[in-house]
Amino acid sequence: MSSPDTTDPTGTTTVHAAGCVLWRRSPIDGELEICLVHRPKYDDWSHPKGKLKRGEDALAGALREVEEETGYEATPGARLSTVRYLANARPKQVRYWAAEATAGAFTPNTEVDRILWLSPTAARNRLTQPRDRSLIDDLLAALHLA
User: Fold this and answer.
1) pLDDT, tens digit, for every residue of 51-81?
2) What is the DSSP string of 10-72?
């Protein structure tokens, strides 16, 4: 298990986070749906994710964040890409997994005020950050739908 943050040789601290591309089969037509979360603090749409707690396993952290942000429990699947970017002038690394929603229900909270279940195409178009769009392609490949 790693600590949530690491320092590189230049003294820059990397923030470690984890998340999931949460999916389900539509209760209406059985088609694939991807869950996106809306964070009012940033007014953005993204995949559920968050910083790891000290000593927390990345997959455990990803599933914890999914449940905290969406209200859904999930069964983890394939490991997806790791996304790296700068957040508040600090490097951030987010490890992602595919995860199938199993049980639960969304309740709005201060961190996430809305969720949407969208088709892969609609989800790709709704995501605020272009870097998050390739994760949908990763999911489709992992589910052998690409």
Assistant:
1) 999 999 999 999 999 999 999 999 999 999 9
2) TSPEEEEEEEEEEEEE-TTT--EEEEEEEETTTTEEE-SEEEPPTT--HHHHHHHHHHHHHSE
| Pairing of the two strands 32-39 and 114-118 | antiparallel
Q: What is the pLDDT of residues 23-48, one digit of tens each?
A: 999 999 999 999 999 999 999 999 99
Considering the segment(s) 5-142 as one domain, its CATH architecture is Alpha-Beta Complex (3.90)
* Amino acid of residue 114: R
Residues forming a β-bridge with 10: none
Provide the pairing of β-strand 90-104 with 13-25. parallel
Bridge partners (DSSP) listed for residue 18: 50, 95
